[in-house]
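DATA SHEET
Item: assembly model
Revision: 1
Owner: S.N.
Input lines:
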Amino acid sequence: MANIKYKNDYNLVHRYLCGDEEAGRILYADVYIFIRSSIYKLTKTSIFSDEDREDILQDTLMTSIEKLDIYNGTSKFSTFLYGIARNKIKERLRSKKLDLDIEEYYDDLGVVNKDPLSIIIEKEKKLAIVKAMDSLSENHKQVIRFKFNGMSTKDIALLSNKSEEAIDSMYRRALKSLKKIFEKLQK
Amino acid sequence: MITIENALNFYTNMLNKGSIIDLNYFEKNLSIDDFNEFLDLMEVINIGKSIKITDEFEKHFTKINEHKKSIESLKLAASFRNENENESDDVMDELDIIFKEEFNDE
C-alpha cells in the first residue's frame, strides 16, 4: 500500500467513496477556489473564451470523480486535481488545433496564492449580507450585482445612461450602505 | 495616487478575474484615510463575492455528485452477473441463452 502522506485528504476521499456526501462537499470546497483560479490564470490568454474556462473546470471536476478511486493520498488532493486540469487544458488546445508551447503557461499554474474569497462561509454572515443586499435601494443593489458579476464600469455606465465616474461613485456609496446595514444585522 | 473609487473598482475587477492581489499597491497609492475605508469596504466585497462563488460551487458539486452516483450505478450493473451467479441460476441460465443467441458467431 502506498505511503499515505495526506491523511486528511485521503480520509475525505475514502468517506466520500463510501457514500458520505458531506465529506465530498468538504473535500471539493477546500480545493474549489484554488482549481478555479488556477484554470482561469492559466487560460487568461485570448485563445480561451469564458465558456472554454467553464468547460475546462466542469470537465476537470467530472474526471476527478471518475478517477477518485485511484487517489492514494501520496499527494495533496489539490495537486491531483491540478494534474487533471493541466490535461484538460492540453486537450482543449489540441481541439483548437493550436500548436503552442503550452508548457510556458504551466509555469504560472504553480503559483498558489492566498485567495481572499472563501467557500462555505458562515451561515450567519451569509444571511446578514443577503438581508443587507435586500435592504439597499434598487440602484445600489443593481450596481453591486453588476460589479460582482464582472461587468465593467463602462458597460454599466452605457446601460444606465450615466458617466463612468458616476457609476464608480455610486458603487462606493452602495458598498458603504451595504457595510453599514451588514454590521447592524450582525450585532 | 488613486482615488478610493478607482481602488474599489480595480479590486473588484481583480477578484472577478482571479488575479493575484497585492494590498501593498493599494496602501502605497491611497491616502491613509482612503486606505482604511478601502480595507473596511473590502470585507463586504469579499463576503458578497464569496456567496456568489459558494453558490457556483454548490451547483458544480450537485453535478459531480450526480455523476458519482451514475458511475456507481453503472459499476453495480456491470458486476451484476458476478455477484448474483450463485444466487439465481435460472436467471443466469436465461441470460446465457440470450447471450449465445446474440453473440454466438463472435
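QC remark: The first helix of chain A runs from residue 7 to 17.
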